[in-house]
Amino acid sequence: MYVKYFLLFSILVYNLQANDMRALLFHGNCTTCHFENKTVSAPSVLEFKNRYMQAFKDKEDFVSYMSTWVKHPKEETSLMHDAVKKHGLMPELGYDINTLKEISAYIYETDFTKHHEGHKD
User: Fold this and answer.
1) Of 20, 38, 31, which Cα lies nearest the Cα of 109?
2) How many CB atoms lie within 10 A of CB 50?
3) Would you say the C-alpha torsion 101, 20, 25, 113 has a positive or negative sign?
């Protein structure tokens, strides 16, 4: 049974382009807690993206800071102290830095105010 799912997943991944892979990583992981347009158990993607965009207009800086912070979340280095106070500190998720950079790049490049692939809310 697991082999069938692994094979199906492998075929799906093989056929995806780079941005599709980023979308898959993002929607398969981040949207469990971070809804795109509404705050529930964690800040919405729009909320934290806007905060990061204010601090880091350059894509490279945005991706570097976000991926590094998500790798090892610390309250003192957070850009969202109000959200940490309200929702608690994001847990360490155990993803490698390259995966986090891909997800961060997807967040930077995606307009979450418009319909896009994988949109859920």
Assistant:
1) 20
2) 13
3) positive
Residue ranges of domains in the chain, CATH in brackets = 17-109 (1.10.760.10)
pLDDT in tens, 16-36: 455 688 888 998 889 889 998
109/102 Cα distance (integer angstroms): 11
pLDDT in tens, 62-96: 999 999 999 999 999 999 999 999 999 999 989 99
Query: Which three-class secondary structure string do you get for the chain?
Result: CHHHHHHHHHHHHHHCCHHHHHHHHHHHHHHHCCCCCCCCCCCCHHHHHHHHHHHCCCHHHHHHHHHHHHHCCCHHHCCCHHHHHHHCCCCCCCCCHHHHHHHHHHHHHCCCCCCCCCCCC
Question: Residue 95's closest CA among 75, 76, 72?
Answer: 72
| pTM greater than 0.85 (yes/no) | no
